[in-house]
Design a protein that fits this description.
The chain is of the alpha/beta class. Helices cover about 55% and strands about 10% of the residues. The chain has helices spanning about 15-30, 40-60, 70-80, 85-100, 110-120, 130-140, 155, 165-175, 185-195, 220-230, and strands at about 5, 120-125, 150, 180-185, 200-205, 215. α1 (about 15-30) packs antiparallel against α4 (about 85-100), α2 (about 40-60) crosses α3 (about 70-80) and α3 (about 70-80) packs across α4.
């Protein structure tokens, strides 16, 4: 039995893609009156992608690089030639409202996490994002109370796979890397980062493929099966 498990949140406790698609569609509907070009959803999507790339390039490896408010601020500035903060807030609110409505917790996720806690396993969410947004997601998913800690890249000053965020999570939990597992979906951020930090890595596979992780699972119930098998 591991002493602790570090848990990615986005696309690990729930499927990210449908939530983002719903959020972006809602933002587009609000954006249509702002710019003639945005009557075309594809054009809006391309401009959003460009704004996202610009923000991420400027803030590489920092939690703010994931901030949708900055994406929409940059998007509107590029289109209008000035900041339109009212429009920024309109698009930002529409995005997250639709995103949260679409969020669905993976089957078995909460039950597995509760069972691990009951067995004395320490749990910590470890996520590349700003703290406020991740707390909101955990609230929507009904997961505010299932882990001992939440550690975000905002407080670690570094995104996964940077070792600093893993070190901070281990320090909060008071455990050693050798007794800790990392569960996540991202081959680079979660698996490569976790292995470099000395953790046992468990890849939650969302789509067909392979990943250099210690273990691979396709759903949350398999995590309990894996732990049972490893501790026999």
């Amino acid at each position: 039995m591991p002493q602790a498990v570090l848990l990615d949140l986005d696309n690990t406790a729930y499927a990210y893609a449908p939530c983002h698609a719903a959020g972006l569609a809602a933002a587009w509907r609000e954006a249509v009156p702002l710019q003639a070009r945005w009557h075309d959803a594809a054009a809006f999507g391309a401009d959003y992608a460009s704004a996202r790339h610009a923000v991420k390039s400027h803030l590489e490896g920092q939690a703010a690089g994931h901030c949708r408010r900055l994406y929409f601020k940059t998007l509107t500035e590029a289109a209008l030639g000035r900041s339109d903060l009212a429009a920024t807030e309109l698009l930002h609110a529409a995005y997250w409202r639709a995103y949260h409505l679409e969020m669905k917790l993976d089957p078995g996720c909460r039950a597995v996490l509760v069972a691990l806690r009951e067995r004395g396993v320490r749990l910590c969410w470890i996520s590349n994002f700003t703290t406020g947004q991740q707390v909101q997601k955990l609230q929507v998913l009904g997961l505010l109370d299932v882990a001992d800690f939440l550690v975000t890249s905002e407080e670690a000053h570094a995104d996964k796979p940077d070792p600093r965020i893993f070190a901070l999570a281990l320090a909060r939990l008071g455990v050693e890397a050798a007794q800790t597992w990392m569960v996540g979906d991202d081959p680079r951020d979660d698996m490569a980062g976790g292995r470099a930090a000395g953790l046992t890595t468990v890849w939650l596979r969302r789509a067909a493929g392979v990943c250099p992780a210690d273990h691979t699972i396709d759903n949350w119930s398999q995590l309990m099966d894996l732990i049972a098998a490893e501790t026999m």
